[in-house]
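haha ok so turns out i had the wrong file open the whole time. this is the CORRECT one, sorry everyone. sequence first:
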Amino acid sequence: MADSMPRELESSLWRLFRDFFTRAERKRRWSLVEDIPWAQCNRNLDPAIADVVESFCAVELFLPDYVTKFLGVNRASKGRAWFLANWGYEELKHSMALGDWLLRSGHRSEEQMADLESQVAEREWNLPQDSASGMIIYAMTQELATWLNYRNLRRRVQEKGGDPALEQLLMFIAVDERSHHTFFRDCVELFLKYDRKTTLEQLGRVLNHFNMPAIYELADSRQRVARIKELEIFTENLYYEEVYQPILAVLDVDRAELRNRAPGRKKSPVLGGVCHQGS
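then structure:
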């Protein structure tokens, strides 16, 4: 699908953004200072939880790359560009909240957080898709996967003794991520309406080769991924059952139709091995 889109489609994308923004202003804005019970951080929470929080914080710290590169290929579309500016604001709150919890809970020191930020700054995230519309499809998938990560992490926190501050901020972040997914999904539904053939090709490419962003850019990525798997926060099966299948169902795309349009699967989602479920 050409990234220079018909005027009618651009008008629809702008309406999607205005509706998204109105709902966010009325129902979803939260304060990093006032809405999280920081005094109730659990300093004795399982260190494995803190390790995962740190990994998610590191992923969020690639925000300058996400915003500049993703926004750069979508700047010709006002609806998409304005959304991405708002998206960047919400994502920076996520990185700040996660970093603040690591410090306030005592699970990380100022020096350790500075080292993490330096590690991220030494690396660069690049666009995983080669078109603006392909990146919208990738973002739709990534935001649902990210929502799943935060939902499951919150459940593990509750199972391991609880932390009211972390549970609250993870709930806020999960709600944001689900809202982002819905916006991107609505965009993809419009793309399917205007150019189903090309959109299906891009959808298959994304779903069959999906990896969570940026975590593989970190020097100790193998250990970080292993910890996420051990806690069953995000696995191949979870991706297939709670990301891959729901996306196809909501978009009303049959798996056979997707296979016929897309290149074959080479790597499993997230973990880099061979995946047989969707092939």
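Confidence is low (pLDDT under 50) at residues 264-279.
again sry for the mixup
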